[in-house]
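The record is given unchanged here:
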Amino acid sequence: MASPGFYWTMIARTRPRPQSCPRALHSQPIRTANVPFRSSQWYSRPIHGPQRFSRPAAIQIPAQRRHKSFRVAAHELYKEYPISVSFATFCIVSASLAFIYANYLYRTYILGEFLPYPEPVAKKLRRALYYSNHDLQPENALKYYKQALQAAAECGMDPFSDEILGVKFQLASFFEKQVMQPRMAIEVLERVRKDCLDWVEGKRGEEGRWGERTRVLGQCVRVSVKLGELYARPDIMETENAEESLVWAVTTLLKEQERREREGVKEGEGEWMSTEEIGGALESLGNHYSSRSQHYLATPLYLQAVSLIPKTNCHAVILMNNLSASLSQQRTPSTPYDPPADPAALISSARTWAEKALDIAKTIQPPERNGECDEGCAVAMHNLGEIAEMQGNVQEARRWYEEAREGSKRMGFREGTERAVERLKLLEGT
């Protein structure tokens, strides 16, 4: 007779018809092979009459064994086809990373930028930006910009909110850069400035609107600075309008800053423009006066702008060079009350500011250091050469020009190289 364990195994495989069990099994314990017990005891029960042996439960393979089998199979597959398996793995990983990155770009730069807008407005803006930046079609872009502003009005969006003003600024940038129509950009910005100023005047003194007033007035100043730059373009050259816009911007921001210092910041008013923005407006007006050779007006603006910008900013080097050049060329008109400044003193001050620009440019290190520092070094060397010429020191001037030429060549600053070579040629006969 076969043992109980073997007998069970045979029944489990063949599943015969029901039959009577031998009496010899009545007193024998029954134990199923390969099926774990809840305890280590042997169980027995009497068998009365014919019994049908039920099919045992499916054998559970431990998870560790399954994982091991998969690893073994993968290892064997890799050993047999190393190049194909490596390439397939690379393609799967690359596709997964590309999908994740594409999803990130879509949510961050496509959906994220339009979250503040209702969907009817966002839909039109997406199309306008597509026809502005990707498939340049000015007529379609302008049509969808107008439809976006119309949809915003229908949705009840605030026409003076940063979101709607941003759409108008984008439209002005589209006219300036994409279709090369700066006069159309001026027209858009002039209308924005007028509407914002009317709103500010209408809300003057209203309680609870100080924060909105600060925000809208700041946008007016920024628009005026941009208008000054557009009016001063060579293809427009409306210098009077440029000066008017820049003077208004500088006067307004300084008056508002002075009012806050005198009266204090009102509740909910918020912060005024940053020091970088104030310095930028002062610099723009200084550049305007400098381009018209009104250096006596540009000098105080450059000086005030330099005092506002951090000395760890490379743009401070540019401002100091501008101040140095303005001082060296300054010819203050004489008045009955103010005698003209001493030219020697002005040239000495110009030399001091050029040397200071060179020293600051050398001390700024990455990551704060950028191309402005390198170009500022070359400009400072060139300015020192011109100042040495003014003081009659030709050898020193030649040395500064040579250093400016070599430095400009190293950094690929073509304009600096050309100017230094030009000055060296003029010194050859001396």
